[in-house]
Amino acid sequence: MVFTDYVFYTLAAILLFAGLRVITTRNPVHAALFLVLAFFTASGIWLLLEAEFLGIALVLVYVGAVMVLFLFVVMMLDINVDKLREGFWEYLPMAGFIGILMVIEMAMVLSGKYFDASDAATKPLGYSNTAELGRVIYTEYLLPFELASVV
């Protein structure tokens, strides 16, 4: 295995741990901080995939703006966590059923019967994913991009 494989598996393990802690921690501030960790590790994976623009955009947009605002709101509001957990057992059977359906769907997709991943094509010399992203946005998706900028 190459060094980048080890880095990828380390970042993926940290990302899975942080994602799990986002949904299992009891303190909303800690959940938001674990989400920040998840965004940083996802950004690291983007950087490993040589998609530097997407990695930096993830950090700037989500960690730099959205999560700071989310942390501010969570810290300013006095959230009664015990009151939110009162209806937990009422919805547990439906949540378990939906979770089992999702596991079955993922098993079907990952079994290879419905999913055939071909080998990745090699990039031409001088290829830039940022330039390609700009080309696609400003040619194929110009109208939706302009509408999104107005909204």
Question: Please, could you describe this protein's structure?
Answer:
The protein is mostly helical and 151 residues long. Helix 1 runs antiparallel to helix 2. The longest helix is centred in the middle third of the chain and has 25 residues. The mean pLDDT is 85.
Characteristic terms for this protein:
151 residues; Four Helix Bundle (Hemerythrin (Met), subunit A)
* Main pleated sheet: none
Q: How large is the radius of gyration?
A: 20 Å
How far apart the termini lie comes to 47 Å
Order of helices and strands: HHHHHHH
Oligomer: single chain
Q: Percent helix among the residues?
A: over 70%
**What is the architecture of the domain at 1-86 at the second tier of CATH?**
Up-down Bundle
- Classify the secondary structure makeup into a structural class: mainly alpha
Mass-distribution shape: extended
Level-1 CATH class name of the domain at 1-86? Mainly Alpha
- Ranges with pLDDT <50 over ≥5 residues? none
Number of helices: 7
CATH superfamily descriptor of the domain at 1-86: NADH-ubiquinone/plastoquinone oxidoreductase chain 6, subunit NuoJ
- CATH T-level topology of the domain at 1-86: Four Helix Bundle (Hemerythrin (Met), subunit A)
